[in-house]
Amino acid sequence: MNMKRPDKPHNPDKPYFPCTTFDHAFYDSAPQVYINYVDLPCTPEQAFEVFADPDSWPKWAWPGISSVTWTSPKPYRVGTTRTVVFPNGMEVYEDFIGWEDGKHMAFCFYGVSQDDVFSAFGERYDVEDTGNGTSRLKWTVAYDPAPGFKRVHMLVKPSMMLTFKLYMWQLKRYCRKQFA
Description:
Elements: E1 17-18, H1 26-29, E2 32-40, H2 44-52, H3 57-60, E3 67-70, E4 81-85, E5 91-100, E6 104-112, E7 118-131, E8 134-145, H4 147-179
Antiparallel strand pairs: 1-6, 2-8, 3-4, 4-5, 5-6, 6-7, 7-8
């Protein structure tokens, strides 16, 4: 279902394009699904400390994320919103459709500030305790490219896959530094 979310925050100084929102089934059925795993040198609770820290994202999800702003108060849960800014200035507006501290979080875009990139987009983070202060993250990225992005998607898909792997490596390195 595609719906404009006037009840959700977005930058009034930028264009706003609604995205198709969805439930958890989309992570298995989306036109594009990428799954990456990484073993983290921290507990699941510590991994969620990193995920909740807006200042951590530009450090480990670099060069993809410039800033993260939570637009809902703590505690974070289903219905929490945040805004993420990319280096090109595009803003994405996220609605969390899953949140269980130390175990699971998932969001979908409800809107973006740049047209013709994503019709629908979301990420799911599933964290499993592997013992001895370590955990394993299963990171799922699922999306439906908008018509403009579809035209070039096959050309950029390999670099996107490498970038996703880079993020996992950088997250592992970041956690190692934070929790050594």
